[in-house]
Amino acid sequence: MTGGREPGRQRGSVVIVIAHDECSAEITIEGRTQVVTGAIPKETRRAALDAATAYAAHLGRSVLVNARDANGAWQLIISPTGVVRAAGGSEAELVVRPDTQGRGRGRKIALALTGGALAVLAAVGVGAVWVVRGSDVTGTEVNGGDIEGSGIRLETRAAPPGFSVEAAWRLPTRTGTRPAVAPDGTLAAFVNPDDELVVVGPDGEPAWSAELPLSSSAIEGAPAFTRADGGWGVALTDNATLWRWPAGGGDPEAVELPEDARVTFAGTSPLVLEEADAYVPEGDELTEVEVPSGFGAMLADGDRVLMGVKTGRWTWVGVDGDEGREIVPKAPSGADRPIELLTARSEHTVVLWKADGGGADIVAVHDAEDGSVVAAAAADDDRLTDARWVRGGSLAAYGPVIFDLDAGEARTLDGFTPASAAGGHVYGEVPGDGRSAGVPVAVTGDGDPVDMDADAVRPWGLLDDRAVVIADGDLYALLPE
Prior knowledge:
Keywords: Membrane, Transmembrane, Transmembrane helix. The chain crosses the membrane at residues 109-132. By secondary structure, this protein is mainly beta. It has a domain at 13-122. β36 and β37 form a beta hairpin.
């Protein structure tokens, strides 16, 4: 497929810096800074996003937003119509292809970032633009010997519950980038200060590295691990190109992206979406995947794509056009009918159900292959507006609902906003006193929150049994307690 962007064309960018007390924020657009305020933190964040949306509407195209608060940062992309998504995101979104009698190209259903990504901005500690604290960044690698007695410590931040400040190793990263951990916990990828993509194993030793074909400042989101050649390759995107490295490294394949296309890594393979059209990369080209009428493509998993319907059904469609059977999710206990397919991953879908006889709606995780119920719990629908899915091992969360996928159990923690999950904990925040930022907590499978230190780092994932965290520009592998 051809017809991408002009070389060198760049999306407009916005910088949002939330004040420590969250009563004000600075928004810098084209070198000019304005200040917005709010009576409560949520109002401040909303005002900042409104300013960015107005700029996108002025340009008539999406803009990249670098948002930062006292605890971390995140990259977002805001469209001229105010649709907000994580840059280089891993969330599945549903753009439904209309019936043949319908008009228009499709209607966007915002799944995880509906209403403005306030939850994303609040999810501190999972950010993408890190504040430089001096220029004395150094790295320490463990090359053999007793890794448990490496002597490396996390000095400037507190460790998250379940892990110690002792680290197996520490490596320097490029400021403004963030790491990724392979789904099976065998590899981590990051960009080093020399603008090289580096992939390491649990011992911190490089498995392979490659010089970046783009500026590290142009990377949208984080590196993403994708299935390739029976192992894990790595993918990166900017606003015009998708790069894919094979498992074990080597030369990357570069795929030019259509104007205003978005790439999701919600599955094990990248899926390129342009309005209601769906594509998968094959070599350095994009191959269009036929989207059935009334469905929308949500994620790619190898040679197939999950297509969903807003009201809860889905199907797997082969890249070769082979359509599988339509999957109707089974009702969880106490449910009447499905309301909405909220999000999806290669193994699971999340569906919102109407409760039988009224009461709070039910959020259920379903097996993506047969629609059976994995776990479900009731939740206030208002708490799901800005919900996002996180998973680490057997624990996962969608908004305030915590799922133990292995045990088949789910619990709701009112007001909880998840940020990441790893090592038997879901990390996030519960509401503060109204004028302060949220209170950081770690939640176990039983749903009980444990308070975290305000400056505690949050894991990006587990590399073997070690928590991968960033502090002051360095990547650490923290040892379990």
